[in-house]
Write a structure and sequence with these properties.
462 residues; alpha/beta; Gyrase A, domain 2; Four Helix Bundle (Hemerythrin (Met), subunit A); Rossmann fold; 3 domains; 7-stranded mixed β-sheet; 6-stranded mixed β-sheet; 17% strand; binds guanosine-5'-triphosphate; binds magnesium ion
Length: 462
């Protein structure tokens, strides 16, 4: 059921459990009234009589006059609050009971418990933030690295909204020119030639493409990259995982088939989470346990964005190596020739048939040789030439990207219509569609189910 926007909502905004403080948040037209019913201030003042952005000290008292907690109450009056409604925050002592009890008292006095993300949803519905900013709030809360935090903070400032509005304005201007052609042609006035209009649409399309391209970087920053270490048994996969993560995470022994289950470790390279997965060595085996491990390795090949193929430099290339190479064909691969501290028997020329020199790296996982080079190569493969330059770029999310792909299709149709010299209403219609699709990114034309999907990702009290 769709909640009403004009009722007053309440939630505990901090995580349950022992903590220094726990905050109960109220938002809505009756929040000050409700708070005043359960709060007795030290100086006998009512909350309704204090200024916005000020605090008042006192106690929460239940209907029978029992003291619940000693608190500080903050008031942020509409429209200068997170939701643009009257907001009251009650700072209780941390712990489960005081905050829960305070929230229950608010409900007894007319508040309704908030849905997940409802505070932010109200900020959106009341026009304080757009949809891309609301999404940035989720990203901010979920940030695990400084990079992803910076990205979210930038989008929270309205970075994406501004860009989308600029694109929308440009589209709108082109439509005006198209419509002017219809009106002016009859009056014999000068009109914008179709050629020029094509150029302008193509320029916007190029800008969309740039945004779409940068989406991947944003996803990498937020969610990291899965990297699977793959190879036959005993080539040094686990040793490599340990070395890269600088931990004794995986068991290393001279016995082939040591690793049975995939071992995962997250490391951060310049703020980018790399999810490294050490896998069981791939070979034909009769052991049931090892077989399961090998199956898992094959699954990780499919899921990984990058494969570190490990070969043993001390052994000749074997059939199984070739089978593995065949299996990972088409993936992003760095070929690591390991154990270069030992006598080299691997036929490197044969390897060059499969991988370009650029992606072949010689290392020693035992001695730590070539590791810096490998790390740099990983970074290069993941990010491409340029580093992730957050300061300059606008980084959208995957939902925005999907929309932009649709926008691009509309623009393609518009270009086609203009190039085929079709009458103005055809390209104009496509531009209008593009304009509306862009509106869905910032929530101007978003449907209820999209809003539901976005706000349900929030935690309660946000
Ligand atoms: N000399 C030398 N030995 C290495 C090197 N890397 C690994 N080893 C040794 O090779 C053996 C196997 O290493 P692991 O890291 O367990 O190999 P693995 O690929 O994980 O093996 P499985 O889990 O059985 O698939 C161990 O005795 C390691 O110490 C290296 O660069 N040089
Ligand atoms: Mg291993």
């Amino acid at each position: 059921m769709e909640a009403e926007i004009n009722d007053t909502i309440v939630a505990v905004g901090t995580r349950a459990g022992e903590a220094a403080i726990g905050i109960v948040k109220l938002s809505g037209s009756r929040s000050i009234f409700i708070a005043d019913k359960i709060f007795k201030s030290k100086n006998k003042k009512k909350i309704k009589d204090i200024n916005t952005y000020s605090m008042i000290y006192g106690h929460i008292v239940d209907n029978e006059g029992h003291l619940i907690d000693e608190v500080i109450v903050t008031v942020m009056k509409n429209p200068g609050s997170y939701t643009r409604e009257d907001v009251v925050e009650i700072n209780c002592h941390g712990g489960i009971i005081a905050t829960t009890k305070t929230m229950e008292l608010c409900i007894e006095n007319g508040a309704r418990i908030a849905d997940p993300g409802e505070f932010t949803k109200r900020a959106f519905l009341n026009g304080r933030i757009d949809l891309s900013q609301a999404e940035a709030v989720i990203d901010l809360v979920r940030s695990r690295t400084e990079q992803s935090l910076r990205l979210a903070a930038k989008n929270l400032r309205g970075n994406i909204k501004e860009e989308i509005n600029r694109l929308r304005k440009n589209l709108f201007d082109i439509r005006v020119k198209l419509e002017a052609r219809v009106d002016f042609i009859e009056e014999d006035l000068e009109v914008t030639p179709y050629q020029e209009i094509t150029k302008e649409i193509i320029k916007i399309r190029a800008e969309l493409e740039e945004l779409i391209m940068n989406e991947k970087k944003g996803e990498i920053i937020k969610n990291g990259v899965k990297i699977a270490i793959i190879g036959k048994p005993n080539v040094g996969k686990s040793s490599l995982l340990n070395l890269l993560s600088r931990k004794e995470k995986a068991i290393v022994t001279p016995i082939p088939g040591t690793t049975r289950d995939a071992v995962e470790e997250i490391l951060y390279v310049e703020g980018i989470p790399l999810i490294l997965i050490d896998t069981a060595g791939i070979r034909k085996t009769r052991s049931t346990i090892e077989k399961i491990g090998v199956d898992k390795s094959l699954k990780h090949i499919d899921e990984a964005e990058l494969i570190l193929l490990v070969l043993d430099g001390n052994r000749k290339l074997e059939q199984i190596d070739l089978q593995i190479i065949n299996k990972i064909k088409g993936k992003s691969i760095i070929c690591c020739i390991n154990k270069i501290d030992l006598k080299q028997k691997l036929e490197v020329e044969r390897i060059r048939n499969y991988f370009s020199e650029k992606y072949i790296i010689k290392i020693s996982a035992l001695k730590g040789k070539g590791i810096k080079k490998l790390e740099n190569k990983i970074k290069y493969v993941i990010l491409g030439k340029g580093d992730i330059d957050l300061e300059e770029k606008i980084i959208i999310n995957s939902r925005h990207k999907e929309k932009l792909e649709e926008v691009k299709k509309s623009l393609n149709r518009a270009v086609e219509a203009v190039e085929n010299k079709m009458s103005e209403e055809f390209p104009s219609y496509d531009l209008k569609t593009a304009f509306e699709l862009l509106g869905e990114i910032i929530g101007e034309t978003a449907r209820e189910d999209i809003l539901e999907k976005i706000f349900s990702q929030f935690c309660i009290g946000k």
